[in-house]
Amino acid sequence: MTIIQVENLTKIYGKGETAIAALDHVNLSVQASEFVAVMGPSGCGKSTLLHLIGGLDRPTEGRVLLEGKDISLLDDTELTEMRRRKIGFVFQFFNLIPVLNTVENASLPLLLDGARPELTRARATDWLRKVGLGDRLSHLPDQLSAGQQQRVAIARALVTEPALILADEPTGNLDSQASAGIVGLLRQVSNEWGHTVLMVTHDSRLAAYADRIIFLKDGQIVDKPPLPQGRRGQDMEAL
User: Fold this and answer.
1) Which SS3 state, helix, strand or coil, does residue 225 take?
2) Are 125 and 133 in contact (CB under 8 A)?
3) What is the domain extent for residue 162?
């Protein structure tokens, strides 16, 4: 089943001679339970691609289909609802609320969606245990390591059980050991728990955890020599 279908996706900033094409007619499909890494030099359009797929920005041209539905046709209210229910976001900065404990932070997407408090706590607790934080449920963010805070952010992204997880440089603030742990967890999110993961990274060692690597340059998908085989033994090839 195709979770994401990107067709001729283009994003242009500015007008006339100052116009810059952050993305230039990109085509891409991502399947259910697939873990795809997006690589490329700074400014190549990696984050722009994730923002457009996640409905955080609107394209200049082209469209994004999430589970077959064109998200460009949604109004702002429908787009917000779609993001909250269908997509989990994990960013470089953890964006945890300092005065809320681990369970409360992980519960937020469900609470914002109007779920009953007892349901939100139970589901957040379950996901926190799955990501290895069962003994940190009452801790505040400043009582956790950076890697643990990112695990809270991943549990928060998963608490609504979305079809798609978008991770934009999720290890950017972590050391090498914590980075490997987080990307290994995203591998588990895809492989064991069945969620599609699209991750932007600049680190080829971390990208090797993915099923497939997409390489962007100057806003377009380009060929790139394959990396070593991934955790599932599949070839790492550019689209």
Assistant:
1) coil
2) no
3) 2-222
